[in-house]
Amino acid sequence: MFVFFKKMEPISVGDRYAKAKIEEPNLRLPKALLKPPTELSDDLSYLKIFEENTRKAQQLAEAVASGAKLDRKVYRIRNKELVKAIGEEYEIMKLIHRASKATIGLIADAETNLYSHSYLDLLGTVEEVQTAEELILDEILATYSSVSFPVILMPPTVYHDQMIIPAQKVVHIDGIYGSSYVRMEMESGAWIKVGKNPGGSGGEKLVNIFGPRENVIKAMWLIQSVICEEY
Which of 38, 210, 33 is nearest to 129 (CA)? Predict the structure, then answer.
């Protein structure tokens, strides 16, 4: 069995933004953003809110009254990507907030903490939210090849499945498709995380896969195709 990936072509800036995110409405998250961070618990908790304008809520109301459109986007993001847009002492995210004027919230709960994910909450006018989103993506995409990168921003609620694979096959996957499985993730549109198999032998690895259901199924097919190969 052979696994064929699409030929990598140059991607325009606009297409990079589109390919780096998957949007989907989600009503589980709290409606209010402008509130103090709370103690971390099983419930959704704001870990950090970037908003320096004490009159932000009033200004948004005035902007809407003047014809501007209010927007709010909430995404799931892996912590390993989020740190690239935060910077030391939150300096990068502070600059993104100031440049975009969007209110930016970082949220977590028990489930996201378990898998090293967070929620990214953007609130403002349509233009402010779009600017914040693009500036965040710019920081993260700069760490990848211009033609090969995973989905950075996922819907808040994603499908999750697992696979157990022989430890020696992880080396084969990594050697063919590169570290962090970037090409596999780009092809499938899912996130792939390999770790220890709790309760299993040292010869096995547990693969966690996240994303829209069809993307997760495709990622599992790609992984299964690779581990069935003989090297």
Answer: 33
List the domains of the chain with CATH numbers: 13-141 (3.30.1370.10), 159-227 (3.30.1370.10)
CB under 8 Å to 14, separation ≥6 — which residues? none
**Tens-digit pLDDT string for the chain (231 aa):** 445 455 556 677 778 999 999 987 655 555 554 445 555 455 778 889 999 888 888 888 888 888 888 898 999 999 999 999 999 999 999 999 999 999 999 999 889 999 999 999 999 999 999 999 999 999 999 999 888 899 999 999 999 999 988 888 777 666 555 555 788 899 999 999 988 877 766 788 899 999 999 999 999 998 888 777 654
Structure tokens at 201: 């032998």
- Whether the CB-CB separation of 116 and 79 falls below 8 Å is answered with yes
CA separation, residue 99 to residues 21, 114, 136, 139, 192 (Å): 21, 32, 11, 14, 33
68: its two tokens:
């501007």
Long-range contacts of 179-185 (CB under 8 A, 24+ apart): 180/150, 182/144, 182/145, 182/148, 182/149, 182/150, 183/5, 183/148, 184/219, 184/222, 184/223, 185/150, 185/151, 185/219
Distance CA(137)–CA(157), nearest Å, equals 20
CA 80 to CA 157: how far, in whole Å?
Answer: 18
Pairing of strands 204-211, 117-125: unpaired
